[in-house]
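Table S2 (continued). Query chain:
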Amino acid sequence: MLFPRFGAALARLYIVSCVALAATSPMLRAQNAPSSPDANSLAELQAEVAALKAALSQKDAELARLKGAAAPAPAPSAPAEAPSAGPVPSASASSSAQVAPIAGEEGSPVQMSEFEVTTTQGHGYVSGNSASAFKTDESLMALPQGDIVVTSDLIRDLDYINTTDVLQYFGVQAAAQGEFMTLRGNSTVSLPYLDEGPEIPTWEDDAIIDSYEVIKGPAQTLYLNAGLSGVILKATKKPLPYNQEILTASIDDNGLYRLTGDFTGPIGVLGGAQFSYRFVGVYQHGNTYFMNLPNNREVLFPELGIKYRNTTVRVYYNLQIIKGEQDGQDIMTPNGDLYTGAGVHEANQPPNNLNEFETRHVYAELDQKLSNNWEMKLSGAYWNYLDFGNFAYATDVNWNNNTENFISRIDNEKWHFWTVINDYQGHYDIGPSTWEMPARDAFGWAFSSQVDKQAYWTTAPFPYPNGPIGGSVNVPVNSAAAINALQNPPVSAFSPPSVADGGPGGDFETELSTMYAQHTMDLIPNWLTVVAGFTFNSIATESVTDWAVLPWNATFESVSQWNHRLAAVIHLGPSVSIYALDSTTFTPPATGLFLENGELPPNQLGTGTELGLKWNFLGGKISGESAWFKEVLTNGLNSTAGTLPNGALYAAVIGSVTLEGVDGDASFTIVPGWQLIGSWYAGHQVDPFNQPVPGSYNNFWAAYTRYDFPKNEPLAGITTGGGVSRLGGRWQSTGGLTYSGYLPAIEKVEVGTLVNGFVQYQFNKHWDFRVVCDNILDQHYPVAVETAFIIDPSPGRIFSFETAYKY
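Corresponding output:
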């Protein structure tokens, strides 16, 4: 019963494509136009278009008839005749590429393939439950776990350039500002995946990002080595089927300025292949809110797209050079507060304390439509990342005499990744015509080789130039002048350590591989969907502690594990669904650990159990989801359980770490021009002894809104928006702090409330201007906490001015 809908959509797509290509592609017109006007040819074309329109009208009438005959009964007492209405993946207008329209600049997401949403621009803040997502491109209403798609529009309005800043409105907490984050109150750090491939950057500019997808809960069955609490997917900008050029300039009250260019459009047609391009460029320079902390960035992102019949190819090169801090270096007081005694602009950073982070990333992707129902995607990436620079940092804080101890080192770490991912998916119907059960299969494999060559040296005199080699300096915590007087050695002052001193560094290689298969079926059409997926994961590591010693003395470890994903979704009509999920993950034990009997520790097995509710009313104007979840990570280790007769330490299994809570999100677009989103979480993570786990957090809530004044009102052209975000109950170890008073081993960290806002004026169809205020309340609190003396502080109130020209 889906064929009439597919036929209508294909006819509509063909007509739109003919008109758009004839109007916008000079190369196509030059290639196909006769040397002189031909009235007969024009008449034939007009007749063909008229015939196609007539066929489309017939299909629409047939579809309307089928919809009227297929209204579902209150309960399925007998098999229905393949009703076409209802929230099943294959029947959702937004979950199939065959029925998704190609939009204009302000339309729906442009979706060219079941694997690819080309852009979310102009689609509002969040692609709610009417949208499709996940590797399997299912309707969000049919996904048996939480999944939020954050669109290009919201990314722009938030006016942030780091992943952790954007996603703080969706329950994602910064473990370290930039790219290191945690989800659902979990203490385990997660890293985002760029175009579904793993990477490990400290910083990565979001100018190249079209959308984020926040998947809550276990997803390792489908995503390579994903964590127990979820995974963050970053989708890069792609070539668009229309011309668009956007120039943006901004400056804030600290003098930090930023220039961005984003250009895309069709190039032309050659040999039947349609060529398109995208180019993003960024230049940013200047000081931030904090002393000695500039944030300089250069980004180049050229991309080429090719579409030939049923084959789509895109290739891009991502070059990013970012100069900034390695880590936040503010410190925590004994009661868990952010210390600001040296001034709110003092971030504990001495002068010349910057690292350079360089990304060189090549990506290629091929999408092949194998038939009307089946597609294949093959992608490959080579990712180079360099972290280089010298910086001085605190190693401990003595609150008895109010001093902190600084040392200096050089960082020279090089990552080399190459990743290949191959996915297949298809949909079909099973069963007789009186009980057709829509089904969807997804299967594939992935491999990633990740090499990390480290060189961390402390071989320069410190303080420079007359201090001892590898020396340390105590400075008063309340003196910005003392911190600014620290003389950080230049890069040239560091030399490789001798083998006797530990050597220059280690070389560590990890190979990740997976094979997966998942089957989804509507056992009771429009009422009950079941999901069963299985994955075989393998992780192999090779560790060399000193790459200067030849031949290398490497330690090899290889572990593997079967994981599963089992779920059921009950559709309570087209607007409400409830689901249950049971899914597993695994994590290998830390390299170099052994049990007392000499064997390797067992894998840490993660199990996620979840019950959830989803809703989608008024065509997506009111949508959301909420879930109860429990995540258990088994085989927790005490890495220093005892000492063997030979002096080596051994580990012991001590139990499980348990995370339990509720979370959810909602979006509203009831009043024309007004959008509102919200997200929340409440729960706790405890260790085997029922104590809070450092790095975990107990609650979170956030909301963000935008209102566009109507065109026929005096304030036409003005848009205003803003949001609030608050995270509480965050726990952190007090290790590294010395204090003679009461100092618990784990302390609750100070919380703050972030309030942002913006006002934009659309001067004409080309120009817009906006003023943004970050941290309106001017609060100072920890944003990210790695240790008690490695903290990213919240900048105070910042105003910025931005203008964009679009043509």
